[in-house]
Amino acid sequence: MDNSNGYWNATLGLLGRILVIWFLVSFGAGILFADALNGIHLGGYPLGFWFAHQGSIYVFIALIFYYAKKMGDIDRQFDVHED
């Protein structure tokens, strides 16, 4: 029972961190902090605009790969991985 609680806590911790990053990038950088970020330009476009339209997609894709890697690590740590 102890091992399953540890696995569940590790999984929820990972999901929590990913959701916070997802929120900060999509809602935070794209909407809340857009005015502050628009003073910086990336590729000729204001950074807030870039995050709202393209940057968040890149971060979401990176989060997918990060999640897959870290879940594999958690699975191996708790010996529930597939060979």
Question: What overall form do the CA principal axes indicate?
Answer: elongated
Biggest sheet, open or closed, and with what strands and sense? 2 strands, antiparallel
Helix count, DSSP H or I runs of 4 or more residues:
3
Q: Termini distance? A: 23 Å
The fraction of residues in strands falls at under 5%
Cα-atom radius of gyration: 17 Å
Q: So what's the oligomer here?
A: single chain
Percentage of residues in helical conformation: over 70%
The poorly predicted ranges are: none
Tell me the number of structural domains. Answer: 1
Total strands: the figure is 2
Overall mean pLDDT score? 90
Return the structural class: mainly alpha
- Element string (H = helix, E = strand): HHEEH
The side-by-side strand order for the widest beta sheet comes to 1-2
Report on the structure:
The protein has 3 helices and 2 strands. It is mainly alpha-helical and 83 residues long. It has one domain (2-77). The chain starts with a helix and ends in a 6-residue tail after the last helix.
